[in-house]
Amino acid sequence: MPSNREGLKITEKEWRYIAIFEQLTDVEVLDYLELDDLIVFMVRKGDAGKAVGEGGRKLTDLSQLLGGKRVKVVEHSDDLKEFLVNAMLPANVKEVEITERDGKVTAIVRVPEEEKGKAIGKGGKNLKAVRELLRRHFKVERLVLA
Fold this sequence. Notes:
The longest helix is centred in the first third of the chain and has 14 residues, at 12-25. The protein has 2 domains: 12-75, K homology (KH) domain (GMP Synthetase, Chain A, domain 3), CATH 3.30.300.20; 80-145, K homology (KH) domain (GMP Synthetase, Chain A, domain 3). Helix 4 (80-88) runs antiparallel to helix 6 (125-138). Mean pLDDT is 91; it is low at 1-5. By secondary structure, the protein is an alpha/beta fold. The strands form 2 sheets. The chain has a 3-stranded mixed sheet, with helices on both faces. A 3-stranded mixed sheet has the order 4-5-6. The chain is built from 6 helices and 6 strands, in the order αββααβαββααβ.
């Protein structure tokens, strides 16, 4: 897995949340991100369905166990475009374009107009979370939602 996590410090509370997630879902956490009331767990390719549970039941249980915080599961992929499609869920991605200029990578993600709210998330947190995961794992400096 491409990673840029060197130097990141995980607090005792974060370790506790990761342990709760792994125990409840029986899925390994590859990365963790918390933005106010949103917690994002990144899991291995193929593990998102198991982590979410039938009808999202496990996410509901997790949310309750984590003090009512919203929980999002992102399935990892070594392929940047596939990762972006996974990370933008529940919004449906129509197209992903990757550009590089002066050594800086930009990802442009196109979603249907009526799904932009899902892509952005409450208070812009989904988009912020995706930007941070892109920075950590793919060294993408800019994410544009179109």
